[in-house]
Amino acid sequence: MGRLLKILFFAFIVRPIVVIVLGLNLRGKQNLPQAGPAMIAANHNSHLDTLVLMSLYPLSKIHRVRPVAAADYFLKNRFLSWFAFNCIGIIPINRTGRQRKSELFAGCHQALDQGEILILFPEGSRGNPEELSELKRGIYHIVHDRTDTRVTPVMMHGLGRALPRGEALLVPFNCDVIIGNELPDAETAEQLVNGIKESFLELQKYCITCWQA
Q1: Which pTM was predicted?
Q2: Domain total for the chain?
Q3: Where is the Phospholipid/glycerol acyltransferase domain (predicted)?
C-alpha cells in the first residue's frame, strides 16, 4: 500500500510541479546511483529538496529511495507522520543526541542492507535560502564501517526561494540540481566532510541561478 501511495503521489503531484512550475537546470543525472546500498549527500534549503531529488528517479525505483528526516519534525502529529511514512518513505532520525550511534543509525543501516538509496542532508536542517551551513559528521558514522556504500554529492540552488523555510506557498523559481561523481573513501570524518563541502562548492559553479541572484 505504501509503495502504491508513493508512486501515485510522485506521478500526479510532485512530478507535475517539478516539470511545470519549477524550471529545472539538471546536470550530471547519469551520476545518480541507480541501485543501493548508496547514499546521496545534498545541501538543504527547502522541503522541495527531497521531493525534487526523488522525482529524478523512475517511478519503478522510487520506493527504493529513502530520505533520512528529523523525527521531531515529521512525527510531530499523526497526519504528518502518516504522510511522511506512506507518501515519502522517510527514515526518521532522532536529533536529541540522547541515543547511541548504533541506535541512532540503525534504520539507515537496515535500509542500506536491503539495497536502498538514502538521501541525507549533512547540514542537518534547512538553513537560510541559498546559504551553505556547517556540515555535520553523521554520514561518516554511517559509512565508515561499510565497504559497500558510496556517497554521491548533489548541489541544489534556487529551491530555497521557491519554497522558503516557514512558507507554505510555492513560488515559481528557476532551480539548479547538479549531481557530482561518487566521492572517494575517507579515512576520517573530517576528510569526508571536507570532501563533501569541496564538492558542493565545485558543483555550485554550474548553478545558473547563482548568477541570477
Answers
A1: 0.89
A2: 1
A3: 38-159
